[in-house]
Amino acid sequence: MFSLFLEQLLNGLQSGVMLFLMASGLTLVFGVMGLINLAHGSLYMVGAFACAAVAAWTGSFWLGLVASLMAAALAGALVEMLVIRRLYKRDHLDQVLATFALILIFSEGTRWIFGSFPLFLNVPEALSGTVTMPGGSEYPIFRLAIIVAGLIVATGLFALIGKTRLGTRIRAGEADREMIAALGINIDRLYTVVFALGAALAGLAGAFVGTTQSVQVGMGEPVLILAFVVIVIGGIGSIKGALIGSLLVGFTDTMGRFLLPIGFEAFFDPASATAIGSALASMLIYIVMALVLFLRPSGLFGTEA
Amino acid sequence: MPEAILSLSNVTKQFGALLASDNVSLDLMPGEIHALIGPNGAGKSTLIKQIAGEIKPDSGDIRFAGRDIGDLDAVERSRMGLARTFQVSSLMPEFSVLQNVVLAQQSVSGKIFRFFKPVLSDASLLEPAMAQLERVGLADRAEMRAADISHGERRQLEMAVALALKPRAFLLDEPMAGMGPEGSKRLTGFLDGLRAEAPILLVEHDMDAVFALADRISVLVYGRVIATGTVDDIRGNEDVKRAYLGEEA
Amino acid sequence: MSMNRETILNIVLAALLIAVPVIAQIMGEPFIITLATKVAILGMAGVGLNIALGYGGLVSFGHAAFFGIGGYAAGILASHALNYEPIMEAPFEINGTTQMIVIWIVALIASALVALLIGAITLRTSGVYFIMITLAFAQMIYYFAISWPAYGGEDGLSIYVRNSFPGLNTLDPISFFGLCAAMLGVAIAFSAVLIRSRFGLALHGARQNSQRMMAIGIAPFRVRLVAFVISAMITAWAGALYADLNRFVSPSMLSWHMSGEIMVFVILGGVGRLFGPVAGAALYIILEHLLGGMFEYWQLPLGILLLVVVLFARGGLIGLLAGERKHA
Fold first, then answer.
1. Distance from C-alpha of A112 to C-alpha of A98, rounded to nearest angstrom
2. Which of A265, B141, C184, C299 has a 20 to 30 Å separation from B205 between CA atoms?
3. How far apart are CA C125 and CA C130, in angstroms?
């Protein structure tokens, strides 16, 4: 029982860290550019497909990983320059619709190129296999690796935002959009870089998760919704909020799905317990979000936009 | 002695280190124009917002029409009869001049949640609305979009909307702002006649208008009322002179 | 009534919507009638959204929740009736029904209650938070429908026989089309009356300047909530019709893709235009079947079209054909 619990805990951590990669890009783009981007999930998908395609072609997962970063960043930069740039001054409805249109374009385009069947992305040799956890069960090394990788990236992101010149510009941009233009910073290029950075993070998450699950069209959408819930909980524009929110959502979702059906078995027969427990588990995150918003309307670390 | 329509007692509001309102007490008697003046940054806007219900004071009481309105929000205070105009015109840009006033008229009538009868053919709203426009001199602009009229006309529209509310008291925040000498003179004459309908708490920078209109003046400096009195009292007050002209006076 | 271009266009659209299925009936093409029925129903869902979105300026990204509530009202009531199983036995017995009118009333009431609850919470937020939280509530309902096994879960619920309407053979495609078109007509007429009413003026005012609304003594929150509830009810009614059209209801009616699609109808046709959602729905269905027949990945050009409309042709199809809207 303990080993099962530990396993779910680690899964929750993995889920949270991967969500952070998605949510951080999303919250950066919103915080700096004021733009709500539904196509973020598509960039996640692009990363996964690029990794799978290149890994299959070259036989190397690592090359695939590099490809996922580059493809997602490139796609992000292109999309920003062609489409997103025209949306900064528009209202939220236009941004929602335009990026929804991008989802359709990316999804159908990917389906056209790769077909409707999922691609396979295999765990690299070096990281395959399992490791024995306290309690006796086996946990895949790869999953531990992506938790570590994700945490390293998170640390890198905090360092970038906190300690570099780019980071300073990003933080300044979040605080006062008009001011940084007046300070002579090349806004166009800054925005493209920020967008591409967010895209790369999403692509990386896509590659990682695609390896543990599967690579298929539309894989980014459930994650996108969760990422939005995360940034609403954490506060739009706050990377720290994105981290706390991601871990909260990751753990709540994973542990909820694990514990709630078990908990309900005390009151109902197993079949009903599973049904009610699962139903409640899926709704749990949204209930948490509603609660957070009720108590803190701008999210945990958000500033009133 | 008649009771004040509006009275503030020891109203205090602090924003972090900034004391925006420092134990402010003043009142508005029926039939009077009470002007509130003071240098920029004195806290006049903050005070207006607290009276209107947009901000809650940290302490102190505000009474209006005989009751404590501290717990009422801006909508409720407006419905009680407190009409306020904004320093920066706050209108419905897509509506016509007439529609802006009709909406206020509709609010007064109390019947908002009506879904079937067309509002713009409702004489019970249109006639009073046009009457208000005629009073402020905007009748010929009735069909123009509010976004398309001039700045001075927008100030007039603000006034018409306030009139339509048939209020118990007016809260006017720099109505002369941005008006030329012609417009200011006309508005001064207008306000002079208005005080009989309902008393006016007038925030203004235009000293000519203030001295011509005010029955009483309160001077606000750094959030505190440093003097209240008639025009002559204030004109001769040393503290006031110093506050406006600086230490050299 | 002044005959401006938009009014003429609306009349033409209405005429086309009636004429196409009538001609199809004469030519013996029931599939076209079904398509026209779909346009009427989806258009009606869009008319509902348009009240909140177009007139009220509320970007509700969760309207599929109401569409689905309407659909499930039809599905649940019908399945209980057809299986001769009461919905509830104690404290008093409630049976299912296959009468459309009863189903519609249930759909209207259920959606109104849910919209009241959701609106009371979401309308306290604004901007992105509002969009996200409406989406989240819809997702909650979506996942609930998937997990609740009693009504089919992910597989959905079939309605074996289309529900009944007095005096009509609802199984006959043209009769059912007539019914849906009539309901669409009611929704559009109500929408038109609403926008010209006192409530419509207040709603339009709330969209422009909340601060001014409060200063004249009208609470924008209350106005928006009522608009949200009305909007939900109309979309739910369309959902009930949709379930009867397909004789099937599934959680996909509650998905955010559905929310997005309803928004697409409204945008393609023209936000805030009376017949906008109908024009948009028609365009969408035409693309789906004409383009979709030739090109499997037809949603790719749809996405490009949507992008172009959003970026360059904000007024949608009606805006393009009838020009700038005269001020309200």
1. 21
2. B141
3. 5
Distance CA A219, CA A107 (A): 10
Distances (CA, A) of B227 to B24, B35, B38, B43, B230: 11, 12, 10, 15, 10
User: Using CA of residue A99, residue A103, residue A108, residue A113, what is the dihedral sign?
Assistant: positive
To which residue do tokens 């959905």 refer? C156
- Asked if C161 has any chain A CB less than 8 Å from its own CB, the reply is no
User: By the CB < 8 Å criterion, does C300 face chain A?
Assistant: yes
Name all domains of chain B by residue range, CATH numbers in brackets: 1-81+170-249 (3.40.50.300), 92-166 (no CATH)
Residue B115 binned pLDDT confidence (cut-offs 50, 70, 90): confident
Q: Which residues of B touch C219 (CB under 8 A)?
A: 75
Residue A89 CA to residue A187 CA, distance in Å, equals 14
In this prediction the pTM is 0.90
- The dihedral formed by the CA atoms of B224, B225, B226 and B228, expressed in degrees to the nearest 10: 180
Structure tokens belonging to residue C265: 């109808």
Which residue, C111, C101, C100, is CA-closest to C159? C100
What's the pLDDT score for residue B100? 94
Would you call the peptide bond into C277 cis, given omega within 30 degrees of 0 as the criterion? no
Can you say how many angstroms the Cα of residue B59 is from the centroid of all Cα atoms in its chain? Answer: 23
Q: Tabulate helix, strand, coil % of chain C (nearest 5).
A: 75, 5, 20
Q: How confident is the model at residue A188 (pLDDT cuts 50, 70, 90)?
A: confident
CA distance C241 to C40: 10
Q: Given CA atoms C113, C118, C120, C123 in this order, what sign does their dihedral have? A: negative
Q: What is the token pair recorded at B169?
A: 């008291």
- Residues in chain C with CB shorter than 8 Å from the CB of B75 are 214, 217-219
Shortest Cα–Cα distance, A133 to chain C (Å): 32
Q: Are the C-beta atoms of A64 and A175 separated by less than 8 Å? A: no
DSSP structural state of residue C288: I
Bridge partners of B26?
A: B8
| Distance from the Cα of residue C255 to its chain's centroid | 14
**Contact criterion met (CB < 8 Å) for A297 and C124:** yes
> C136 and A278: CB-CB below 8 Å?
no
User: How many Å apart are CA B3 and CA B115, to the nearest integer?
Assistant: 41
Q: Quickly state the pLDDT bin for B248 (edges 50, 70, 90).
A: very low
CB atoms inside a 10 Å sphere around CB C189? 11
Residue spans of beta strands (DSSP E) within chain C: 157-158, 248-249
Cis peptide upstream of residue C91 (ω within 30 degrees of 0): yes
CA of A39 vs chain C CAs: smallest distance (Å): 12
Classify residue C291 by its DSSP letter: I
SS3 A298: coil
Instruction: Determine how many CB atoms are found less than 10 A away from the CB of residue C165.
Output: 18
Chains within contact range of chain A (3+ C-beta pairs < 8 Å): C
Is beta strand B169-173 parallel, antiparallel or unpaired with respect to B82-85? parallel
Whole-angstrom Cα distance, residue C237 to residue B34?
57
Residues 6+ apart with CB under 8 A from C16: none
Q: Say if CB A288 and CB A233 are below 8 A apart.
A: yes
Residue pair B87/B118 in contact (Cβ under 8 Å)? The answer is no
Q: Write the CA distances from B61 to B29, B37, B43, B55, B70, integer angstroms.
A: 17, 21, 17, 13, 7
**Prediction ipTM score:** 0.89
Q: What residues of chain C lie within 8 A of the CB of B74, using their CB?
A: 214-215
**For chain C, what is the total number of helices (H) and then of strands (E)?**
14, 2
Q: Cα(A46)–Cα(A220) distance, rounded to whole angstroms?
A: 9
Domain ranges of chain C: 5-18+29-322
